[in-house]
């Protein structure tokens, strides 16, 4: 189908995009003082800790009094370490799977949730419940729930003939357990965000869709999905960062095993930093980790907000 | 195209305790332009939604010509509806917006293109077809949502629910003329909901006044102005609205504040009435006569094109309209003559008679 290029009517364009630049106001540099409290706060909560890590990452520390400057040596060794590379790919794969499952599932739940009546509150409570449970408790719950011998979930799966589910021995089972646990724990967040956005769509949009004879899918695609862009951007960012830094749950359920099947970056990092007390490599590792999260989040954010223009 | 007939149609949102629309029988005649006028919350939108099928009425039946549509869903009714604010598929271009209802109904591609272009020409949207709809100004957006209703071949009626509320007053006038042209060119039945009397009176062949879920009067604009059948119509239409003075009838004489105004044109049981007269038919400066009342001027509003003279007549405030530059000053004693045979009597808000001169006929 050919659509004629829009002929820009100068009068229209001028009327629609008025020049909103305010009058130039006199500048008062004392305004910088107002930023001071934030600067102080951020210095103590973020800047100083971060610089400490930077400091560690360029030194080989034997004891507080015995240290040598090693430059970028730790960065080189960390990026070449096969264990770190394995954990990186594993974590990336985990985040990708988490997003691919949780975002569509959360949106589907939000669309299916009731819009009015007493069932609204009931649905909200049920959906929000997993979010109220602390991370380590979630881990404990699933550690028991997924056990083949005494856990309801694991036991039920093992009733299927030919299936031998054991997350402590089988790496696929362990992976699936951690993934399902994350989906159970965090899909509600996506669902609640999406539900809030959907609720804000005025009724006439749905009425117009009915009048236009739109199918349920077209209504979702053309009315609901465009309105979800904003919250889905936030949901994707939150779920990416959280899943990429997942620590507590796999630590409690599998401890990174079996072997290193569920040894994610954070699990490995804490092993190096807290377990072996290798502050130099741990510092370099942390900085790289931090950088990756920043870059990927930035890319997500840019792509998602650009596509809406 | 066919008449839309409401047969004993009523709607209640709370299971019959209160009626949003009281059971009514009413026919929207094919091809006419109607204005549905009434204050907020009088059931205008409910009535509209009953016609378009967004609401199934609690009682009664809806007919489109010979076809009963009471339980036919909205998509099967071929109604075009425009809402208070522009409802657009914001991510889509203007072209796709207009094509959307047709594509949903699986029209062939060239037919879609032909119809979209015809409608866009009629609505003056040709230059904007390729733009994202949300980048248009609200007035054009509202035209696009109207266009989505008009592209279909078999529109039974176009329902407009206060469509100009969000539109800049400056272009309201243009839009209203566009609507009138569309009505003239297409011959669709138009039902236009508004609470703005100017909009209603300039737009419609027939004005239907709704109050508390019931139609209190319907007729041509002039009829509603000159001969209000209900106190509410008198107040609501006209600017300023009709004066109403509390009075009483005894032995065929109408008194306000003890003063005889005139004679009731037909025998009425004695008791309180309300006397309604429009400012346009209350004249000062003609000297004493009947029907009329002695009055004292309290204030004068100089409106430019005319003056509004506020007086106290029979102890009650009343507004009279006078020519611009009238000589009346606050405190002056005058006499208000009620002219044109347009003084009406109301009981329980409904018109029950007319006031005529003490000797002679109305006029």
Automatic annotation (TrEMBL), chain A:
Q: Where are the transmembrane segments?
A: 31-54, 92-113, 120-145, 174-198, 230-248, 284-304
Give the start-end ranges of region Disordered.
1-25
* One annotated Gene Ontology cellular component of this protein: plasma membrane
- Transmembrane helix recorded as keyword: yes
Species in which this protein is naturally found:
Nonomuraea montanisoli
The protein's location, in the record's own words, is:
Cell membrane; Membrane
Question: Which protein family is it in?
Answer: Belongs to the binding-protein-dependent transport system permease family.
Task: Please identify the protein, giving its name as recorded.
Answer: Sugar ABC transporter permease
Report the InterPro entries cross-referenced here.
MetI-like, MetI-like_sf, Sugar_ABC_transporter
The ABC transmembrane type-1 domain, residue ranges: 88-300
Look up the domain of life of the source.
Answer: Bacteria
Which UniProt keywords are present, listed alphabetically? Membrane, Transmembrane, Transmembrane helix, Transport
Could you tell me which Pfam families the record lists for this protein?
BPD_transp_1 (PF00528)
Automatic annotation (TrEMBL), chain B:
Gene Ontology CC annotations of this record: ATP-binding cassette (ABC) transporter complex, substrate-binding subunit-containing
The molecule here is called: ABC transporter ATP-binding protein
Q: Which organism is it from?
A: Nonomuraea montanisoli
Q: Where is the ABC transporter domain?
A: 4-237
Highest taxon of the lineage = Bacteria
Do you know which Pfam families this protein is assigned to? ABC_tran (PF00005), TOBE_2 (PF08402)
Q: Which InterPro entries match?
A: AAA+_ATPase, ABC_transporter-like_ATP-bd, ABC_transpr_FbpC, ABC_transpr_MalK/UgpC-like, Mo/tungstate-bd_C_term_dom, NA-bd_OB-fold, P-loop_NTPase, Transp-assoc_OB_typ2
The record's SUPFAM superfamilies line, in alphabetical order, gives:
MOP-like (SSF50331), P-loop containing nucleoside triphosphate hydrolases (SSF52540)
